[in-house]
């Protein structure tokens, strides 16, 4: 019985595990090179101002207008519901003016924002709730607050390599946890977005 001739691969259509591994590696590399927008993570750094803010029962007066001042913050995407929304961790440092006092607070909160950033849709909405910690506070007022935030913004990823920018507005409210007092504010902010 004469043995069958050896079958040789012809042209670029090679098969087998090695060929499959090579194909997968090449497509992964191509997708990373051609994709725009966040791949795994993004971080936004912001600077903003409270344009319309009112404090109630904070300090000696029952109502004080225009108490909010400059705010600086960082938002970092920690998770994603695919094709739906992002989970962000946001840290905001906010300053206030109440009479002669200058309270300062760090707000820490999770924020849900949709649509998810990988959709690359420029308009986004979100909401968050967390805790505020006052580093400087009026005497006999709570050092802790419940912080609430509603937001809407426009974002553009990777305009210059991995850097983009965003503009955001919304409502920031806080309620003192260990005393009376609250603040309602409308804010505007903007800054840079970094993808990596």
How is this structure best summarized?
With 196 residues, the protein is mainly beta. Helices cover 9% and strands 58% of the residues. It is built from 1 helix and 9 strands; from the N terminus they run αβββββββββ.
Note the topology.
Blueprint lengths: L16 H18 L7 E15 L6 E3 L2 E14 L3 E12 L7 E11 L8 E14 L7 E17 L2 E14 L5 E14 L1
Antiparallel strand pairs: 1-2, 1-3, 1-9, 3-4, 4-5, 5-6, 6-7, 7-8, 8-9
Largest sheet geometry: 8 strands, antiparallel, barrel
End-to-end C-alpha gap: 63 Å
What's the β-strand tally? 9
The secondary-structure class comes to mainly beta
Mean pLDDT across the residues is: 87
Sheet-strand content, in percent, reads over 45%
Lateral arrangement of strands in the main beta sheet = 1-3-4-5-6-7-8-9
Description:
By secondary structure, the chain is mostly beta strands. Helices cover 9% and strands 58% of the residues. It has one helix spanning 17-34, and strands at 42-56, 63-65, 68-81, 85-96, 104-114, 123-136, 144-160, 163-176, 182-195. It has an 8-stranded antiparallel beta barrel with strand order 1-3-4-5-6-7-8-9. Strand 1 and strand 2 form a beta hairpin. The longest helix is centred in the first third of the chain and has 18 residues, at 17-34.
């Amino acid at each position: 019985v004469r043995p069958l001739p050896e079958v040789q691969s012809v042209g670029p259509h090679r098969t087998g595990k090695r060929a499959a591994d090579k194909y997968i590696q090449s497509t992964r590399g191509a997708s990373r090179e051609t994709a725009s927008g966040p791949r795994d993570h993004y971080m936004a750094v912001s600077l903003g101002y409270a344009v319309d803010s009112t404090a109630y029962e904070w300090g000696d007066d029952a109502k004080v207008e225009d108490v909010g001042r400059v705010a600086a913050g960082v938002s970092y995407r920690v998770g994603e519901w695919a094709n739906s929304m992002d989970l962000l961790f946001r840290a905001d440092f906010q300053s206030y003016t109440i009479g002669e006092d200058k309270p300062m607070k760090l707000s820490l909160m999770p924020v849900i924002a949709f649509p998810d950033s990988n959709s690359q849709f420029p308009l986004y909405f979100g909401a968050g709730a967390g805790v505020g910690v006052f580093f400087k506070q009026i005497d006999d007022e709570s050092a802790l607050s419940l912080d609430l935030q509603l937001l809407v913004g426009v974002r553009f990823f990777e305009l210059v390599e991995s850097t983009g920018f965003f503009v955001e507005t919304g409502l920031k409210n806080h309620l003192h946890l260990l005393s009376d007092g609250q603040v309602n504010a409308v804010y505007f902010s903007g800054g840079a977005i970094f993808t990596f």
